Amino acid sequence: IATMGASQTRSEHKYKDLMDKTGFSLEQIKNLHKRFQHLSGNEETISRENLDTIPGLANNPIRKQIIEAFFDKRNQHENEVGSLEEIGFEQFLMVMSHFRPPTLKTTEEEKEVMRKEKLRFLFNMHDTDNDGTITLVEYRKVVEELLSKSGAIGLEAAKAIADAAMLEVASTNVPHMAPDDFYEGITFEHFEQILKGLEMETRMHIRFLDVDTTTMRCGKSAS
Predict the structure, then answer these.
(1) Residues in domain EF-hand (predicted)?
(2) Which residues in 85-107 are b (16+ Cβ under 10 Å) and which e?
(3) Fold entry, domain 13-98
């Protein structure tokens, strides 16, 4: 019994540590731990293959980018770069924390930090070569996949729309930026400017893990 008590205390300390690091509540962490165990088959780590089997991701045009984001060291809040082969539960939680919605107790200052973290996560997802800029080629690739996989238009039309959309948004939000500068790539600061008016808190949540991050409850949704 003493051993069980000590083990439970260790577990509680571990959860408390994770609560401090991620901002999740104890209930949210326990829910996400169940989902992690399901994905990993009760193993200590998950790999890209584990995420690749999620039905809700099967038809997602940016499936590859979403999966890679979980193994990108830049999303671990540790100022490291590179890619991981597998991730444990704590690393999984760190990535999921980018989708954490604000609560009634969240201050304006904390909301701003959360917004910046979400934008950084999105930026990293587009900055596939990890050079600190999103080039038109990288941006175009994502838009092309989104548009061409919808089957409505061809690849050339998708390219034209991607170029036009990026330059239109840039000229509106970053007026001093010339088109030639834009083709060289946009920095995170430019990216922030471009998405300045976008309300991130409700838009950036995730359903493909059968976890609705607006509540962090496990469910049957496969979208």
Answers:
(1) 114-149
(2) eebebebbbbbbbbbbbbeeeee
(3) Recoverin; domain 1 (1.10.238)
Are the beta carbons of 74 and 80 closer than 8 angstroms? yes
Greatest mean pLDDT range, 99-103, 165-169, 210-214: 99-103
Pick from 174, 208, 193, 171: nearest CA to 123:
193
CATH fold match for the domains 13-98 and 103-204: yes
> Could you give the CA distance from residue 40 to residue 57 in angstroms, rounded to a whole number?
16
Which range has highest mean pLDDT (10-19, 179-188, 197-206)?
10-19
What separation in angstroms does the CA of 191 have from each of 8, 159, 195? Answer: 45, 20, 6
User: Facing residues of 211 across strands?
Assistant: 218
Please state the CATH superfamily assignment of the domain spanning residues 103-204 in this structure. EF-hand (1.10.238.10)
